[in-house]
Design goal:
With 369 residues, the protein is α+β, with helices and mostly antiparallel strands. Helices cover 31% and strands 25% of the residues. The chain folds into three domains: 77 residues, Rossmann fold (3-Layer(aba) Sandwich), CATH 3.40.50; 60 residues, Dna Ligase, domain 1 (2-Layer Sandwich), CATH 3.30.1490.20; 192 residues, D-amino Acid Aminotransferase, Chain A, domain 1 (2-Layer Sandwich), CATH 3.30.470. Strands 9, 10, 11, 12, 13, 14, 15, 16 and 17 form a nine-stranded antiparallel sheet that branches. It has a four-stranded antiparallel sheet with strand order 5-8-6-7. The protein has a two-stranded parallel sheet with strand order 1-2. The structure holds adenosine-5'-triphosphate (ATP) and magnesium ion (MG).
Length: 369
């Protein structure tokens, strides 16, 4: 379900093992639709489209978070669907998601739910300055607004047309990181190494994946928290949990994505099992093994900003760097902030990978990190 780049990389991993794939996406040319054996071009809730998918597929997964839950319920009644409708519904709704984190005993940013004018009026003063986030349908920082006073908060909620929101306290971030796990129907759970993530303008810009990217106790804590979050949900599939590291080195959970994640793309080139391999295995009921990272890696996201003046980025120079792996998603038009591809640098040592990643960034006009 879904034809974006995550679907494309899943399809490619499935095809590498000989599977046939079908993608349901209304868009006539989508990154995953272009490479799949079958492309069902209907709306996500179209009954005929869903019936075709059921007919074609033994098992079904999703590549974006906002697949309508009723579609997953329909599919789940006939086929193995992972992750299941219930887990996806929780991840789709920041209010339910935060309640789940609290249930798991994993601390999240202090927050208040705002669904009514009286809840707005009752927001505790110490949540300001904060970030107002829509409960549903936000991504890449969309549907979020920073507010520093009650007046700004009221205006921001008004501008969001009074939809259900959460106000989160603005936290002093030292770093951001994420952990990806895959959990099978038999309860076996494996994880990729922790990713250190740099966001710019609310969009992931750089992921650094190597030993020592964060202090070992924090890494262990984040992995344990992610496993607990998956376990509590009886989750089946690939799950990514994003965390904040605060100035005092405490760890706070931000949000989860019920699918492979942009921060895990390095695993395609730096691990013996990628996050998409793990997704294929969970879907097919095949054994899950703990992935082994064989090279330090840094991933640079390639946003449409690199194309805007119409010129193609200097791939010839970028690909002359040792350990450069270019992934482009087959999107035909570039626009500012659009994820067009990613570049992973691998190497023998962290120092070498950092050096080539900085060279690549300089060639591409990406700010140093
Ligand atoms: P995506 O789904 O693409 O990860 P999103 O739109 O769901 O993004 P969040 O992950 O909630 O957005 O926030 C985007 C970024 O904004 C975070 O990665 C972080 O840099 C910043 N941010 C979000 N919440 C807070 C907070 N409470 N305090 C400080 N910074 C925050
Ligand atoms: Mg996020």
């Amino acid at each position: 379900m879904g034809g974006g780049q995550l679907g494309r990389m899943f399809v490619q991993a499935a095809q590498a093992m000989g599977y046939f794939t079908a993608v349901l996406d209304p868009d006539a040319i989508s990154p995953a639709g272009l490479v799949s054996h079958y492309h069902i071009k209907t709306a996500y809730l179209d009954e005929q489209g869903l019936a075709q998918l059921i007919q074609r597929c033994a098992a079904i997964t999703t590549e974006f978070e906002n697949v309508p839950a009723p579609a997953l319920l329909t599919l789940g009644a006939a086929r193995r669907v992972s992750p299941g409708a219930e887990a996806v519904a929780i991840a789709q709704d920041r209010i339910r998601e935060k309640a789940h984190f609290v249930r798991c005993g994993v601390p999240c940013a202090p927050y208040a739910v705002i669904e009514t004018a009286s809840q707005l009026a009752a927001v505790p003063e110490d949540l300001l300055p904060g970030i107002l986030k829509t409960a549903r349908l936000g991504y890449d920082g969309k549907g979020q607004q920073r507010v520093s006073s009650r007046a700004e908060l009221a205006a921001a909620w008004d501008a969001l047309k009074g939809v259900p929101c959460v106000l989160e306290k603005m936290l002093p971030l030292k770093a951001e990181c994420s952990v990806i796990v895959a959990r099978g129907a038999d309860g076996v759970c494996v994880n990729l190494p922790l990713q250190l993530n740099l966001h710019r303008d609310g969009i992931l810009a750089v992921t650094e994946a190597y030993e020592g990217n964060l202090p070992a106790p924090l890494v262990a804590q984040a992995i344990a928290a992610t496993r607990a979050i998956a376990e509590q949900l009886q989750y089946v599939g690939v799950l990514c949990v994003e965390f904040f590291v605060l100035q005092d080195d405490s760890l706070v959970v931000n949000e989860m994505a019920p699918r492979p994640h942009n921060s895990g793309h390095y695993s395609l080139d730096a691990c013996d099992l990628s996050q998409f391999d793990l997704q294929v295995r969970t879907l097919a009921g095949l054994p899950l093994l703990q992935p082994r990272q064989h090279s330090p890696a840094i991933m640079l996201n390639l946003l449409g900003d690199l194309w805007v003046d119409g010129a193609t980025p200097p791939w010839d120079q970028v690909l002359a760097l040792p350990g450069a792996h270019l992934h482009l998603y087959g999107k035909l038009t570039a626009s500012k902030g659009r994820k067009m591809g990613h570049l992973t640098l691998t190497g023998a040592t962290v120092a070498q990978v950092r050096a080539t990643a900085l060279q690549a960034a300089a060639l591409l006009g990406i700010a140093p990190f």
